[in-house]
Amino acid sequence: MKHYSLGSIIYGFRLYGKFSAKEFKQFMITIVILGFLIGFNDKKSTTSIDAYYIYFMLFSMAAVALAILLKLFVQRYFLYKFGYNPEYEYSINSLLIGVVLIFATEGYIWFLPSGATTATLLQSERLGKWRMGLKHVEHARALAFGIIALVFFTILLKFFVTPGSVFLNHMIKINLAIAFYSLLPTPESDGIYIFFGGYRWLWVFTLAFVLCVIVLMKLLASPWLILFTALGIAGFIGIMAGFKWWN
User: Fold this and answer.
1) Tens digits of per-residue pLDDT, 175-188?
2) What's the predicted TM-score (pTM) here?
3) Which of 39, 128, 172, 185 is in Cβ range 3.0-4.6 Å of 1 for a Cys bridge?
């Protein structure tokens, strides 16, 4: 019995893809704290709290919310498609470390690992398909897809950047920072599930792709050139890493 039709996926995603009350609370706490960390230093010479500072802080929170929502949406979609119930769990320890660092460095060092999406089996989705329990590789793939989707969205934003796009450049920086920190194999992060639960080459490829885009965003103006160059370099590094571990 095939249950991967578009209608069944949409119906199931409506049931299991939305936030629970606990998840929504943790999500809101996450975006407020991360937005505060990112908006703490507005790069202006003045240190007063004026209208610009408040707007910069609110914009940072909105950009964080959009970035994390996009990442979580893709991750939750694929986890449901693979037959799992996704659940977002924030990392209060990482968030508190970020708060300490932001005060200690006057806002110059961000520490943004904020949480991870965990997965449990959906028993109903096992009907007609032998799944053999929770597969950590599928969990890791879904998490990596969410991070890669966030980077693709960031490259798309590059098409609209102009010399005066201060806030758009700030959003791009936020997206790439969240993608990078999501890959770090720290406790209670996406990265630890991808690094230890999935194919090691997948973590290497995703990290290389994110780092290449971060560097190329500063060197190249063409979004297409950024995309294909980053994919080419990351693909080569991922193949080499896979070859090393396979042998």
Assistant:
1) 999 999 999 998 88
2) 0.87
3) 128
